[in-house]
Amino acid sequence: MESRKQLITAKGNKKIQMGIIPGHFATNHSHINHYVDLNSIKTSFRIARETAKVIAAKYTAVQVDTIICLEGTETLGAFLAQELADSGIGNVNNGKDIDILTPEINSNGQMIFRDDAQKKIWNKQILLLISSASTGWSIERFARCLDYYSGKLAGCSALFSAIDEIIGIKVYAVFTPADIPDYHSYTAAECPMCAAKQKIDALVNAFGYSKL
Fold first, then answer.
1. Which of 52, 53, 123, 137 has its CA at a distance of 20 to 30 angstroms from the CA of residue 172?
2. For residue range 35-68, what is the model confidence (pLDDT) as tens digits?
């Protein structure tokens, strides 16, 4: 499967790359015909730093108090906070101390924040950082969590997103389906690859894949 891997370079910054592998893959919420490998962006400090610069440029006029990191984006979140706070006098976040948090997932699959972390959410301007969004389900789940803790969503950014918007929330993405020729996402019931009896190559999530 790895022999099919291709590298895609981000528009405007050749230092940022993601890998794609064509095939038949199943996520928790959909079937996709390309696996999107974003691990190098999340684990390489050099690539994460470059990616943070690209994302920060979209939010220089947006007040950000706290960055919420989902799906292993904490390293990127730290660089993003630094970029937002150091982007110059024209940036509304210049000189701020921006908090970085990751929600806990309880036994019911709900996102929660413990009492001592809630003060960084309550009435704060929140920037959501997520690895990938194929259906927007994780973003929608986080929006419900944020509403419970009275946080205010200032923006949502993904490394890769197949959607532009979900429940009225705009999603800015470094990579989009326009960067991947013939990218498609389907519900399991409507997947043409399943209908054609094409074997699933791997189960995938934001942390990687497990071959079948």
1. 123
2. 999 999 999 999 999 999 999 999 989 999 999 9
63 residue type, one letter: Q
CA–CA gap between residue 136 and residue 201 (Å, rounded): 23
Start-to-end CA distance of the chain, whole Å, equals 11
Query: Kindly report the CA angle at 165 between 163 and 169, in degrees rounded to 5?
Result: 140
Element (H, E) at 171: none
- Tell me the pLDDT tens digit for each residue of 162-189: 999 998 999 999 999 999 988 999 999 9
- State which CATH number among 3.40.50.2020, 3.40.50.300, 2.70.50.60, 3.40.309.10 fits the domain covering 2-204: 3.40.50.2020
Q: Which long-range contacts (CB under 8 A, 24 or more apart) does 183-192 make?
A: 183/32, 183/33, 183/34, 184/32, 184/33, 185/30, 185/31, 185/32, 185/134, 185/135, 186/30, 186/31, 186/32, 187/30, 187/31, 188/26, 188/30, 188/31, 191/31
How far apart (Å, rounded) are the C-alpha atoms in residues 172 and 161? 8
Residue 89 has pLDDT above 70, yes or no: no
